[in-house]
């Protein structure tokens, strides 16, 4: 069991060495894109929530 775990970890180490990691500039660019999309979605969903709340409130107050 221990031998299999060690073999697995050695294979993982070999595979990680094959990975092409992004540069700092690429990582920062990707992070910026994610943050902007999350911000846009948060504003959009907030507006939809307010709109639907107003509609339900208007329907219940009739």
Overview of this protein structure:
The structure is a single chain. With 62 residues, the chain is mainly alpha-helical. The chain contains two helices and no strands. The protein has a domain at 21-62. The chain has helices at residues 2-18, 24-60. The mean pLDDT is 96.
Topology:
Blueprint: H1 2-18, H2 24-60
Poorly predicted runs of 5 or more residues: none
Reading the helices and strands in chain order gives HH
Largest sheet: none
- Strand content bin: under 5%
Q: What are the defining features of this structure?
A:
62 residues; mainly alpha; 0% strand; elongated
Question: What can be said about this structure in brief?
Answer:
The chain is an all-alpha fold. It is built from 2 helices and no strands.
């Amino acid at each position: 069991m221990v031998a299999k775990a060690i073999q697995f970890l050695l294979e993982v180490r070999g595979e990680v060495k094959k990975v092409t990691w992004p540069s700092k500039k690429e990582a920062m660019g990707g992070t910026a894109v994610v943050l902007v999309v999350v911000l846009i979605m948060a504003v959009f969903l907030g507006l939809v929530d307010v709109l639907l709340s107003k509609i339900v409130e208007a329907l219940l107050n009739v």
